Input
Amino acid sequence: MTAPAVSPQPSAIRLSNVSRWYGNIVAVNDVSFTLAPGVTGLLGPNGAGKTTILHMMAGLLRPSAGTVLIDDAPAAGNPLVYRKVGLIPERESVHDYLSGWEFVRACARLHALPDADAAAHRAIDQVDMAAPQHRRISTYSKGMKQRIKVAGALVHDPAVLLLDEPFNGMDPRQRLHMLDVLRQLGQQGRVIVISSHILEELNDLATNILVMVSGRLAASGHFREIRRLMTDRPHTFHIKSSDDRRLAAALLADQSVFSVELGGDGIVIRTGERGTLTRNIARAARDTKIRLTEIRPTDESLESVFAYLVAK
Amino acid sequence: MSSAIYDLGYQRYTGVRHGRAYSIRTLWWFSVRAAFGSGRGEQARRMPILVTALTFLPALVQIGVASASGALNFISYSNYLEFSALAIALFVAAQAPELIVNDKQNGTLSLYLSRPISAGDYALAKLAALTTATTVLTLGPMLVLFTARVFLPVSPWVAFKDEWTKLFPILGGSLLVSLFFGSVALALSSFAIKRAFATASVIAFFLLTPAMYGVAQSVTAGAVRRWSVLLNPVLVVSGYSKWLFEIEASHRSAVGRADLPGQAYLWAVLGVCAISTFVLLSRYRKNEA
Amino acid sequence: MNGPYMTVAWLTWRQLFARRRAWLAAATVVLPFILTFFYRLATEDREGDRLIFMLGMNREIVIGVLLPLTAVIFGTTAFGGEVDDGTMIYLLVRPLPRWGVALTKYLVAVLVTAAIITAAIMLAWLALRNDELPGAVPRSFITASVVGSLVYCALFSYVGLVTRKGLVLGLLYIIFFENILARGVPGVKWLSVREFGVSVAQWAGGGVVKFTDASVPMTTVWVAGSIILVGALAMTIRTMMRYELVERL
Output
């Protein structure tokens, strides 16, 4: 990796009571936060409003209520704000028929940069795409397309970088590479926002995490806090067997079980230790000679994970 | 105490496995329904139903008028085919892309090819399907007319005896005309990657050919001028239907002025069908999606 | 401010010719030329025939079919293509006024369409030119095609930007309105861009180019044409400025 560019001026993004609705659908509901230089993660299940918030921060969408300020100037409706912001959108769409180099250079020229070619070279080097830069983008792998998009967004040296699910579809090696690039950029003092729906993707990259569920800001805090909250929550399992009542009685004796609920269509078990319980269920069934026909964890969906966070 | 794993989940299929013919037939029927937009939601149905209704309209109006007024002057069968040529061209221009370009765009062609049908089978099934669907538009109104001619007059039995020979040309005519339009539309659509471009190319074809005919009419002379009538697909259909029903074209009409032997039109129709089918098959020659 | 607009133009240019559309353009340019071959082969080439052929071919085929088809394909793609591909966003997050972006794209579409049709006309004329076919003939049709491109592309740009089915709607307009209605119902002729083209050709032809039934008076052409052009462009620009990345129709 080449030496980093000169650090840009520190910026701050401030959202105050921002809401955005489309007719009857509320995509973002009264969200407020301030972002400082460094990497922030925007977490949430699909449909939580992450992309909407990113687009509002990029100045592409006007908030229906509230204000989005970048360096104390409103983000929307102001073409000059785009000099400060780089957006890497989620959809893979980049111009297929251009080469990587042509694309980045076009981005540089669209910003009327004084030396577009040099800026393009710098950006491409920074994402380590110098080798394939003259091939058509249609021949790139997914990871390479993402990287060339980052180069296009970096070329005008923005103080703010917004990445919408950048790790989608990347294999672990590509992801590590991207993490490196982003870490470097974060250290340069830019404000970087990465949206994702998988917490582990962000690893130790993001210092601060904002969690969004159904348009609301559900939690914010340090990465490790959030992760602890998420893994320590009680898990729920749904079990159907040939003799529910006897199985329930046997499981109630187990140490790892919080609660057992016997219902019309099976047993619902809550536990704090998932691993231990799964082994014990099998053992209990074997010992009581009961046949298990279904074991289903009921709240593995991200929705419930985040909903749990909201409830907390 | 024994431990056993109960295989309650994945079961193997032990039923009948149908072969290639069944696959082809299913694909054919599925495509016929798709040509009328069934199973695709409201918007996909609008256009084909509208055009189909349009083709039936004059026949139904005729019946209404004739039964009300008692006068039994019907549109002749051959005139009907010419008239509905435009509607049929529109129908195939819109639906041929639906049948084959959708699969290319969505990548589902490879799904079909992983079944016991080859790419050539696929193409032929689609051609058969579009022809069948278009036959509804060509044959249907003619049958309506036929029924009207038989049942509206005072003595249906006599009318039937007069008319029943017409059934052969009606059937043959509608089938071949449907094949004509369908094969051209499919051949053109097989080159496109997006539906809209396929529609554009079919429409371009049906716009350019009459235009070229018009130009040829104004500058050529003699035999070339007369034979240039084969440039215009609508006129080819018209000539063909007149030959089928053994009617003389009026001297003022374009076909009449061309004064070509009736079989010329038949061969033109057959020739176009053959060429288009060949083009279509060569596009699907390799078993690749 | 020239650099960025040139880039927008360049991007649009690259996009218009992506995906085999270059072949389409080539075929369009060559088609009238090929027809002149057939003319040579098939006719006796008498006095006055070449003129009739040129007039007929240019009117019916070039202005009548090739121009609207080319305009519809390139016009709807210039705007709709970017939105469909999802790449429009890269043009919007820039410190560039959006009306400038819209105008640039429109002008590129117009230039490309006009260039293709002009090349087609010139090629065919060069094949047949003689004393009977003065330069006024291609000139008048080229003028007509430029005017036609301007108006058609404005219309189709708007349609392509606003709906996903822009190409189909444009085609429907061409078939139904221009080919069926306007030919049959004289009262509607003044709304058909094709008839504008024919009238402009006659006007620019200075007596050499004459059609018996070009019935749209020139003032109507200028007035109605300008209204359509300016109106469609204004709506396109307005839509671009409000473009907010909501899924469009």
